[in-house]
């Protein structure tokens, strides 16, 4: 039998580590012959655009480089399969290409859209009597997948966010004046990544003094009074805000009659809200942008190691006959940090979103409770030994 | 005799390493008794706001932590001394506090404004017959100080810029579509830091496909035709642009009749220029922001080591009787990388700016020549061994 693996959705620092896990375990499995990489997600299967991963990863050095390479080495896609009772043509193409290449198991590393693909494809295979296993491997910096304790990719993003925030805290404190620094953090509709900035509190830092998540109500009036109150207590106020928060049109027009800020992200918008208020101190906003998802130079060792393990577990599950599953992480204990990998129906994960728990948001809705710290802390633990050349990290290209 | 040291201007990753160098050498110098840290630059002398650095840095562990702490541990200021023939009152206050504390040498770590202070103060001391040495220690991520080959702080900023650009290159290439990614890089009026992104070329990368510096003429028409040409050849075009480039009002109004982009930085402006053109592909802009100057977690070992050495050399120079000088780096050879430290009149550096050499800009003004690579390459070499706690770098606070 042969297998194929693909990557989908937004990049992370750990998605290639999961790819490596799949390849490692497949290489250890005698019945697996060819290991195909499908280029640009499921589109690579549709177009029969496959590469030979045994050849591309024939040395330990190459494997080590793949593990430290951010973003999807096989490329990605945003393709969503149609329901096959409405349009089955692409399912037929995929099946034909699986059969033509003797692919008996397909591994899809991605987020909730990809789990939708896993659920639909595995159902189609079963209903058509085809013995082709379809297994999902989770990844997303948003950490918003259901069932799994957390998602590979999240820990490295959280480590980057907390690291650069701790540096921005230093940068913001140098002048002898009052200031507000707003940091806009990714995570789409889920507040996990923004909330993880509470890790700075582990070292006794009051920063971030304010943390705003999409899971809590937000108003600019409350925001301004929060900021004013913190400025009474601290010279340099650090605000972490999730990109998933949006100001209503009414809120924007209150502070910006020319519509200048409507095109901006929430960080810039809140900067303008403060500048147009009577707070009157130095204010700036920083958008961490895609660095959060591709910052492999500061990846979390825990995250990268887990990403490899979960890729390996996916192959084991397929060999044992599982299909239509997403591999999940179960947390056994916070300290010492201990986890187990199990599988759950991908259909239960597909298209769902796990919100940040409301019990971990402070009563005044403007920070994260210390109760969340034991959850986040182990996920950013450990540094990877990054190979460099000419002072820069080395990446492995597969396409 | 006692000494005092202060930090000024914008933060860098290396300014505390220079502070450590001053303290290290002072501790090795028997005739130096008290080592004062002046809080918030020269303002700490004016206000007699001094701390005891022997007490704060009494262990090797604390010294190691100071070396890896970004931004100015003693705080900073933007204070510029008036000419003393116009207003000598502050000079009298400074002198009184030097005498009161038996300070016989003052070390000012900063950029060209700080060198102006060094030049003025040393001249005042000489003209008033006071034997108080004033020595400047350079730092700026802009690398725009005259006479010195490069400035401490620049190498670490360049290492961060090149590292994250190499990661953004991966992030930008995942989808099977045409895209333009514009990265806005600091450096004020000088293109050094933006130009250093050419370090990606050392690994055969065509990215950045376009590099725009303030030292070369810029027009949006030329920019659009450059981008269009690169999109013919490459799917994912990476553009590095210096914050020091500005579009004229006429250029902005051509593409943005509502003035939405006038408030933004050049990166966002150029993103809008492309979006409003007929190029019609996915376009985004990324502002690296203050991360460039406080990214101590990825500091260049060469830079940090040199920052310590130049701090040490400053104390040696003062002990030998020098004053009114800035310590400078002379490059002896690129490979093997070899430098020497010497001193030059701070007055020659004060208020001047060293532009990026025009002979290192390509003929078509939209990239950096490979001739610049031997200059930049050694400056980002080596990784620091960063001490962490709970997965985050540990910083030392002095105030």
Average per-residue pLDDT of chain A, rounded, comes to 95
| Radius of gyration of chain A over all CA atoms, rounded | 22 Å
| Percentage of residues assigned to helices of chain A | 25-40%
Number of helices of chain A: 15
Q: Which word captures the global form of chain A?
A: elongated
Question: What is the spatial order of strands in the main beta sheet of chain A?
Answer: 3-2-1-4-5-10-11
Strand fraction of chain A: 15-25%
Report the uncertain regions of chain A: none
Largest sheet of chain A: 7 strands, mixed
Secondary structure category of chain A:
alpha/beta
DSSP strand tally of chain A: 13
Distance between the termini of chain A: 24 Å
Name the chain pair with the biggest interface and residue counts per chain: A-B, 60 and 60 residues
Q: What is the ordering of alpha helices and beta strands of chain A?
A: EHEHEHHHEHEHEHEHEHHEHHEEHHEE
Oligomer: homodimer
In short:
The structure is a homodimer of 399-residue chains. The first copy, chain A, is α/β, with parallel strands linked by helices and 399 residues long. Chain A contains 15 helices and 13 strands.
Q: What is the topology?
A:
The structure is a homodimer of 399-residue chains.
Chain A: E1 2-7, H1 15-27, E2 35-38, H2 43-46, E3 50-52, H3 53-56, H4 60-67, H5 89-100, E4 103-110, H6 112-127, E5 133-138, H7 154-172, E6 179-185, H8 192-195, E7 210-212, H9 220-233, E8 236-242, H10 249-255, H11 266-275, E9 282-287, H12 291-294, H13 301-319, E10 325-333, E11 338-345, H14 346-349, H15 373-376, E12 388-389, E13 392-393
Parallel strand pairs in A: 1-2, 1-4, 4-5, 5-10, 6-8, 6-9, 7-8
Antiparallel strand pairs in A: 2-3, 10-11, 12-13
Helix pairs in contact in A: 1-13
